[in-house]
């Protein structure tokens, strides 16, 4: 689809002389078996020659057969098979029943027939498309074989689940392109496999691996627990993953979550071992800081530090903030900070392998990550 907003087809009012009771579910009188249809307020062209009826009791869409056939070989095949034998009509139009949801089909038709642009303003500035609408465009674009709709959708999805580490860490920039939550990650995984877009998978699996590690904020802390003292918001998040993901995907998430925790634990130990550094200028004080840190840190503190949900959060500041009064020398502070940063970038490089994936173009070393951020 064009990045510029096409001129939107205006919805035309229906001339009274050309209809016989088509408004708001009134029974139609044309055809062998007249049916009741409710017209959609946005996608209903009075001179359209076919009516698409989605799942459920939802408004139908009166559209132009030739436009759909020209854009989609799948619609061409559907109409060739169903319209000649269509027994049910509304207002003289054959009614074609589709197994698509009404909301997804409407989003798709608004783009295909009405010139709706969910991606850009007419000035060229990006819209943040909702994940629900993005998923609808990709799925129905793929189903009805309209590749430009699929390509545009996948390109936008890749902006939210990028290969580049700096882009991933900048949630504000990613949100400019897509409005999504962690709960959308399982659908992103499904879309990645549907469209053969493996670059989306590492960060989508990563998002799933961090779900449930931290309960979502609630207005009242007491509301985080059910009335019967049972499941918490965290439990619901984990249950949602179990119910949504395929067993093979869930296996990847669990193994990746464990790998992320191990990686963070190794990073924590490496930062501790960096002090005193080879070029330490105040070895006695830095050793005291090291020992005090080990003595004063609680087990719960270390559990939080190696939480997979904090996979890329800095550890250097967290580890040494409790010993500010016995500050590290400059050499030790620099060594600790650099090891922390490099190992975090190394975790990013290992992300595909943690989820048993192979992704072409993914950075191999922490130097690759730094170079891409400077490009």
UniProtKB/TrEMBL annotation:
Q: Where is the composition biased (Acidic residues)?
A: 217-230
BTB domain residues: 48-121
The record's InterPro entries line, in alphabetical order, gives: BTB/POZ_dom, SKP1/BTB/POZ_sf
What is the name listed in the Swiss-Prot or TrEMBL entry for this protein?
A: BTB domain-containing protein
User: Would you say which domain of life the source belongs to?
Assistant: Eukaryota
Q: Which Gene3D superfamilies match?
A: Potassium Channel Kv1.1, Chain A (3.30.710.10)
**Whose protein is this, by species?**
Trametes cubensis
Q: Where is this region: Disordered?
A: 1-26, 212-235
